[in-house]
Structures are given as C-alpha cells and as structure tokens.
Amino acid sequence: MKNLFLALFGLMLFSSCATDDSTINEEPKPKSLSVAQPCFNSIDGTFTMDLSDGLGNPTLKFGATVQTFVSGGLLPNSNIYVMYLQVQPLADCEDMNSDTGSMISFSSPSFKGVSSIPTINLKPVNIPFMCYKWRVAITRIDAKRKGDACTSVSDWYDAPLY
To answer: Could you give the domains of the chain?
Structure first.
C-alpha cells in the first residue's frame, strides 16, 4: 500500500500543467473529415489511463461522451456507429496549430446506440509521435439513405501526459 501511495505521489510530481492560456479559445483547424450532418448536439473526447500493467506500461483509454438528438424521426439509440480516434502529429508540442505529417486514425468496433460507446485502448508505443493532438469522431454506419448519414467530431485536445 505504501508503494502505491509513493507511486501516485511520484506521478503527481512528474505531471505538469500548461501555463499558457492562449490556446484555450483557439478554434481547431479543419481536417480532412468532412461533416455533412452532425449526429449529436455535442461530442466531447474523454481520456483515462489504466496503470494496472505498471507505471511504465500504461494503457491509454480514449472515449467520448455525447448529447443525443432526434432528427427527422431517427432514433440515435437504434443506429449503428463507429468511433474514430484521430491523432495529428505536431512540430511543436506547445503549439496546437503546428500540424506536421499525416493524421492517423484508430477505429472502435461498431456499436449500437450511444449508451454503449466503446473506448479505444492503446499503449504509448502504438502512437508513433512524441508531440500530437487528438480528437474523436463518431460516424453512423448503417444509414440507408444519404440524408441519414452523419458524423460528429470533438474539439482537438492536447496529448495526454503519462
């Protein structure tokens, strides 16, 4: 138990907070994913870290929370979706607008309804960039008509510290 408290205290010592508030109100740059119609009123990315494999081998868990809406009689809880984690490398870790290279994407298994949004679990070695930003996108994949297709995208977030 003592070792667990020491490990948590050590983790807190090595974590840092950005003191530059200039990036808080910046709008994200548009990316290649075009959003014809949103699926949800809002979508937020979520991040947690699982340390059950030890401090040196965390599992990064990216997810999403959404606020649903019903549009044109469609019930979002009966639709089938896929969540994507999009990772964009940055040339400068302190500048969210210093995009460099190609964005990569990881996808979740398909899921039905918004009460069962999965997480995308990655080890740090699966993300090939030292500096990056990330966002989540949720796309409806069972649309029968073009008008039923939708994609919602979160804002960009700083790379998590671990």
So the answer is: 33-158 (2.60.40)
